[in-house]
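Before relying on records like the one below, remember that each one covers exactly one chain. Contacts with other chains, cofactors or solvent are not represented anywhere in the record.
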Amino acid sequence: MKFRILEILKEQGKSKYWLYIRLGMSYQNFNNLVENRTKSVKFENLKALCDILECTPNDLFEEYHK
């Protein structure tokens, strides 16, 4: 599984910085999350992403094969 955060932002015409300001995470953690360099995510961050991007958890993820 991987996040589709950047794709969703592009679809909505919003920037990575716009999301960063609203999430309130450290930049390092935020960037790792958005760039799919994290192995886990807190439920509170997942909920915040869904609320801010007005989407469901299903919208945030896509399956990929290496």
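The mean pLDDT is 94.
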